[in-house]
Structures are given as structure tokens and as C-alpha cells.
Specification:
The chain is mainly alpha-helical. The chain has a domain at 31-252. Helices cover 64% and strands 2% of the residues. The strands form two sheets. It has a two-stranded antiparallel ribbon with strand order 1-2. Helix 15 packs antiparallel against helix 18. 53% of the residues are buried.
């Protein structure tokens, strides 16, 4: 590890923290229906959309109605994306003549982009037409991100309101999030990426002559527009197979920094929205502090593991120390233009959030370095998290933490004046437990069935980690991969699609039930026995509960994969 590396990490952290209040304040005004500096431009557009779709922006919805609207909207979008892939060979904007996508891969991809996962069992530049990339994948990048933010706002309203039967209007929240938050930022962001060297064209791929005299086809296309929402919306699916390690997606150190910031900015800002809507910004800062502590632990371990290098190389006398002539450490699978610090930071950020974009191949990380992204997703990507998903995931852990605290002192747990009773705790546990059920259940099938094992490129613990990471990433709606898994086969396409749908929607429904139940409750004023939830003690309790739940649930699986691989590697046995 170097001082320069730590300066880069601290600079990134400082920029994100500086953006929390302005982003949170703006989003609060948007979702409260207040006037913003964008209102003169977008209010007429917003009202026109409501008239065309028959939506009454003043009519709010019960949590069940809100949830049904969300599910039907996502189902319709998934079916449309599936049809576009199957028919792309006869649809326009296909200059390379891409063939129709096979049924199982189309099903997997439709589920992937609908759920904000963007797991890709294909190479984007060699499989999808421009129309599918733009009207299919990029569209879902916007609306899946907006769906997650809308759901987070619905849960915030559940805590903020008293004796209410509604949690908002899904159609209004979806529209406002897209118009006022995602679209304006992405327009500017895409122009910035074009300036940095990212292509944005509808022209055909370019043929170039190499110095050896051979012809090389260089893939281009509408990359910048997809790249912007891919990062801001924590989607992660790349136009190119190499994702953000590709120089046409992430050409410079500046673009790399901005991409990492954009992954975190909305998730961090939503903690401030939570505090503002509940009338106490300290509550949002406390949640962000818990997220920040877990983030710092993760990035420190990942950076340390990658900077140490490979002990097998050290035993051969290979110099792995950083110097003016080399980066040092483990540079396998990494881009030299980013180096170890920015690569470890990017891997931590993209898996803290449900993004999944990568600027290096996680399969080439050291065992403990690769374990950090895996743990980040297993915890539910609550460390800042995906747009909306991180906040409502962390709020579910807040309920569990306060339930545990209540058990210790013999009081009914409460949060922000709301009593947390049996219904809320049961729904919370259901939402949290559905994730490890899918992570571990599908992994168990993959490592015992021939169809699953045949796709693994490694034997032993590393091969087990490849399978585990795949289902953790798909269920966690992350989308990154260990890159050693050949996932484009019937078994992984079908089981992976179901894992993604389970991870997204079977968590959302009980979460909305919690929001509806809390909104209907009365608020009680704080008393002498009220546990303050804006103090370091609360932050420590919350972090402790997250780590204990994660450790008890996932340590056995981690012990079979990265832990034993690390021990074997240091004992001189490489798998």
C-alpha cells in the first residue's frame, strides 16, 4: 500500500460526503412535489405524461396498490425486452446484423435488466443490436433504477408519516425520479464521457489495419448514453464485454473517478433524504456513518490483500514491491492505467452498491481481495447500496438491531417514534432471509449437478467461489462476476434468471408491507427510556448486527471458498 493510493481513496470519500447534502436536499424537494430549478422545464412534461397515462398525481396508493403497480410495470417491461431480443434480427438499428438472441439467454437478460442486476451471459458488442442496447437495455437502466429509488422513498414515508393509509403513488414517484433526477444528470454525464473519449454513434463498427497488416474490427456504438445511466443507476451492464475495464467505456483516470462517485452519489444522498423527511438529519447521518464504517473496512482489506502480491511469486524471488518503475502487488487482471488502489476501491464500491460494473477481473484478485466484493453483496449491498435498494436494505437491519436492543433491555423496540411490533419484525426477517436462501440454495445445486460443474473453469475452492459468487451476484442484483464461469448455458441462464427475480421482488414485497404497517402507526414522543438512534452507540450496534448476521449466515460458505484458498496458497498449494 502507498500514500498515493490512500490519498486517492480519501479524495473519493471526501467528494462523496460533500455531495450528500445537496443531492439529498434536491431529491427531497423532488419527491415532496416542491419546486426545483428544473421545474420550469420538466413540470409541463410531467403533467403531459400524467394526462396521457391517466394518472392523478394527487391520488396516493395503499402499499398493496403501490406494490401491484410496481410489479405489473416491471412484468410488462420484462416481456417487452424479451420480445425485442428475440426479434432483433428483423428490427431496425442493427448495422452489424446481429442474430436473434436464443430463448434462454433472452429470458436471463430480460430478468437481469428488469431487476437492476445487469448480469450478462453474453458479450454486448457481439450479441445485441443498437436498438436493443438503447430502447431495451438503457431504458431498463433508467426505470429499474427509478423503481428502486421510489421504493426507498415509500419506506421513508412509512417512517415519516403517522396514522396514514398510503405510502405515495408509484407512477408519480417513478416519473419524478426519471425526469428530475436521472435524466438531467445522465445527459451531462454522457457529454462528459464523450469528452473523455467514450464513443456515441449509430454508425457501424470500424475496420482498421494493424501494423502487422491484418484487419481488425473495432466495435463502437451508442456507448456514452448507456454508460452514464449504467453507473448513476447502479446497473453495471456494459456495452462491451470487458465492461469498465474497456478503454471505450472507461478511458481515463478522471472518468474512473467520476464513475465511482456516480455509483455512490444517489445512494449516499438518500440517507439525507431519510433524515430530512423524518425531520432530523442526524438520523440520516447515523445510517451513513454505519455504511461508511463498513465501506472503509472493506476497501482497506481489499487494498491490503491486492497490494501484498502473490506469496508464490515472492517465494520465487519476484520483486512485488511498489516503485517508480512498477505498481507492485498483484496486477493480474488489472488495468495499468488504474493501478491497485483504484482497482480495489472500484471493486469495493461496485459491490457495496448493486452496480456490478468492473474495471478489473475479480477472478484474478487474491483470495481475500476477492472475498471482500463477495461479502459486500452477501450482506445485501447495504453499504451505500444500489439506488434505493441500499437504504431500504439497511433500514431493515435497523429494525433487527432495535429489536435485539429491545430484547436486551426488556422494552418494545421503537424507531423514530414508531413501535416495532411482531408484524414489522416478521416481514423484515422474511425480506432478509430470502437472500441467503437463494444464494446458498442455487450454489448447492450448481456444485453438485453436472450441468453446473461443467461451466466452472477451476477446480477446488476457487471453482466453488466462482459458483457462489455467481448466485450471490445474481440474487443480490449486482451483476459482477468472477469471470471464470461460462454462464451462457441453459442451466445458468434459467436458474440465474429466477435468482435475480427472487432477489429483487421477494425482498421488495415484505419491505413494502413494513412501509404500509409503519405508515399506519401513530408516533409516540421520546421518553427517558427511548434509545437514541443518532449516536455512536447506535452506529456500533447497527454495524455489529450486520456483521453478526452476515458471519453466522455466510462464514461456512466463505470457509469453503476464499478462506481455504488463501490458507492453501500460503501453504504453497495453488488451485
Amino acid at each position: 500500500m502507498t500514500i498515493n493510493g490512500w490519498i486517492q481513496i480519501l479524495l473519493f470519500t471526501a467528494i462523496v460526503l460533500a455531495l450528500v447534502k445537496p443531492v439529498g436536499g434536491f431529491m427531497t424537494r423532488v419527491f415532496n412535489g416542491e419546486r426545483t430549478f428544473l421545474s420550469p422545464v420538466f413540470v409541463p412534461v410531467e403533467r403531459a405524461l400524467y394526462r396521457l397515462s391517466g394518472v392523478d398525481e394527487r391520488a396516493e396508493q395503499h402499499w398493496v396498490t403501490y406494490g401491484v403497480a410496481m410489479l405489473l410495470f416491471n412484468l410488462a417491461g420484462m416481456l417487452l425486452l424479451y420480445a425485442m431480443q428475440r426479434l432483433q434480427n428483423v428490427l431496425p438499428f442493427n448495422p452489424q446484423g446481429q442474430a436473434a438472441v436464443p430463448a434462454d439467454l433472452a429470458f436471463n437478460t430480460a430478468a437481469s435488466f428488469t431487476t437492476n442486476t445487469n448480469w450478462q451471459n453474453y458479450g454486448g458488442e457481439s450479441t445485441m443490436s443498437y436498438l436493443v442496447q438503447m430502447a431495451g437495455l438503457t431504458f431498463h437502466n433508467f426505470v429499474s433504477a427509478a423503481t428502486g429509488i421510489a421504493l426507498a422513498v415509500a419506506l421513508i414515508r412509512g417512517f415519516a408519516r403517522a396514522s396514514a393509509r398510503t405510502v405515495g403513488n408509484f407512477w408519480v414517484d417513478l416519473t419524478r425520479c426519471t425526469l428530475y433526477v436521472l435524466l438531467p444528470i445522465c445527459i451531462i454525464y454522457a457529454l462528459f464521457l464523450v469528452w473523455q473519449g467514450v464513443p456515441q454513434t449509430l454508425g457501424a463498427y470500424v475496420d482498421a489495419m494493424t501494423v502487422e497488416g491484418a484487419k481488425q474490427t473495432i466495435a463502437v456504438g451508442p456507448v456514452a448514453s448507456q454508460e452514464a445511466i449504467k453507473m448513476l443507476g447502479t446497473n453495471g451492464g456494459g456495452f462491451f464485454n470487458a465492461n469498465s475495464a474497456h478503454p471505450f467505456e472507461n478511458p481515463t483516470a478522471l472518468s474512473n473517478l467520476v464513475q465511482m462517485i456516480s455509483i455512490f452519489v444517489i445512494g449516499a444522498g438518500l440517507t439525507n433524504v431519510f433524515g430530512r423527511m423524518n425531520g432530523d438529519e442526524r438520523q440520516g447521518w447515523a445510517i451513513l456513518a454505519a455504511m461508511g464504517l463498513l465501506f472503509f473496512i472493506g476497501v482497506a482489506v481489499a487494498y491490503w490483500a491486492e497490494a501484498q502480491g502473490n506469496p508464490a511469486f515472492a517465494a520465487l524471488g519476484v520483486d512485488q514491491a511498489p516503485s517508480a518503475l512498477q505498481a507492485g502487488g498483484n496486477m493480474e487482471g488489472k488495468e495499468v492505467r488504474f493501478g491497485i488502489a483504484d482497482t480495489a476501491l472500484f471493486a469495493t464500491v461496485t459491490t457495496d452498491a448493486s452496480c456490478g460494473a468492473v474495471n478489473a477481473m475479480h477472478d484474478s484478485f487474491m483470495p481475500l481481495g476477492g472475498m471482500i466484493p463477495l461479502i459486500n453483496i452477501q450482506l445485501g449491498e447495504i453499504i451505500i447500496g444500489g439506488v434505493g435498494a441500499g437504504l431500504y436494505g439497511m433500514l431493515l437491519f435497523v429494525i433487527i438491531a432495535l429489536f435485539v436492543a429491545g430484547l436486551m433491555v426488556g422494552r418494545t423496540p421503537e424507531y423514530l417514534g414508531k413501535k416495532l411490533e411482531a408484524k414489522e419484525v416478521k416481514m423484515t426477517m422474511l425480506a432478509i432471509l430470502v437472500l441467503p436462501l437463494s444464494y446458498l440454495g442455487f450454489t448447492a445445486l450448481a456444485v453438485v449437478l453436472p450441468a453446473g460443474v461443467s461451466a466452472l473453469s477451476n477446480a477446488g475452492p476457487h471453482g466453488f467461489t466462482e459458483a457462489l459468487y455467481a448466485y450471490v451476484s445474481m440474487t443480490g442484483n449486482n451483476g459482477s462476476a468472477f469471470a471464470g464461469l461460462s454462464g451462457n448455458m441453459l442451466f445458468y441462464n434459467v436458474t440465474g434468471a429466477f435468482a435475480m427475480l427472487i432477489g429483487r421482488f421477494l425482498m421488495i414485497v415484505p419491505m413494502l408491507a413494513v412501509a404500509g404497517s409503519l405508515a399506519a402507526k401513530k408516533k409516540s414522543p421520546p421518553s427517558l427510556g427511548t434509545f437514541p438512534t443518532h449516536t455512536p452507540l447506535f452506529v456500533g450496534l447497527l454495524v455489529g448486527v450486520v456483521l453478526i448476521v452476515g458471519g453466522l449466515t455466510f462464514f461456512p460458505a466463505l470457509a469453503l471458498g476464499p478462506v481455504v484458498e488463501h490458507l492453501a496458497m500460503n501453504a504453497g498449494t495453488l488451485y
